[in-house]
Structures are given as structure tokens and as C-alpha cells.
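New here. Invent one.

***
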Amino acid sequence: MQKKTENDLLIVEDLTLLMMDDASGAIAEAGTLYYTLGGALLVELGLGGYIRADENDTGLNGVKVHAVAGRTPSDPLLRAAHAKVGERVRGVQTLLIEIGTGVGKREAVLDRLVERGLLRRETKKTLGLFRTTSISVADTGYKKALVEKVRAVLVDGAEPDDRTAALAGLLSASGTLPTLHRSIPWSGKVYQRAKELERSSWGAEAVNAAVLRTVAAVAAGTAVAVSSS
């Protein structure tokens, strides 16, 4: 099993590690995770010049996203996401769902992290009959280095590179940044800095809108259920 370096990993892989509890393998905000994973892949495609957003063409589903002709990513996950964008021009909100629940779904990202030796997957039998599978962080040193890079930007005011800015913006947009409070103390300053980075990326901003819309729909459904009971 070959360990991968930071430059080998995709933003969506680093983001998944940051959102995951080291011991339990639980991922924060799992109910809206597909928006976040789809957003991470779109951000990476945008940073690589493989797609572009038409800010002058905005519909109900957000800005329209176009695949850049003649450019194809080498990474298979990015290549599949790029192919999805290239099928037809759609709003970013639609693409977040299609990519996050399709080519960039949770299982595909977890499998890659297990193959890279960054996650550990264990299967056990309960009562000698039932198989249960658990996932935990295997390489905590790599994750700690990731957290330190994000912390330096949000707490110490360091100037981020594109990847770190994208990670911080997506953590903010997904609502999962406070889960890192033990390493990145939560404060008004951290919140404001993360929001600045979120707004600087159309991909992260789209995730934020999608998450808020989903939360509002869930809240409305809960209110209806309570009122009718």
C-alpha cells in the first residue's frame, strides 16, 4: 500500500479527512455531504482550468457551468466529474447534487482514502453472525498537518495557497468548521475569515446556498409534522 503525498490528494479527499472524527469515522453534516463533496470536485476542476462559471448566466439553480474544451483531467475521479459537466450546461446547484451523489459520492472518496493508507477499514462479526464495517483515520499525522495549515490561515492570518483557501471555504460553507474547535478555536475572527474565503470561491458559495436550502426544507418539514401531530 503506497502512501500518497499532499500533492497527490484531491481537495475532496483532504476535505473528507478534515470532516471525519478520527476514532469513530463519523463525518460531520453527513446529511448534506453530497453537496460538499460535489462542491469540492467542482472547485478543483475550476482551479485547474477544466471548467468555468458564467457569472452573467444565472438561473434558479445558480450560475451556469461549462466544461473547457480540449482540457481533460488525468485523475479518474476528476475526469468523471468533468465528463458530467460536459454532458450539457447546467446550474451549479444541479451539478452539486449530480456529482456529489454520483461520481464523487462518499463511498468512492472513502475507498480512495483507504487505498492510500490514510483511512483504516475493519470488518468484524457481532455475535458470530452479523458483519459490521468501521472506518477510522489511520494516518493522524497527515490530518494534523492539514488542520495546522487551515489553522494558520484562519487564526494566525497566514496567506493561503489555493488549496488551503478552498478547504477553509468549503469547511465554512458546509457548516462543519466548528467541529474542529479543539484545534481551531472557534471565534468571531475565525468565522469572518472563513466567510471571506468562502465568498471568494463560487464553488464553496454554491455549497453554502445548497446546505442552507436543505436545512430550511428539513426545518419546514419538521414544523409541519409538529403542527399536525
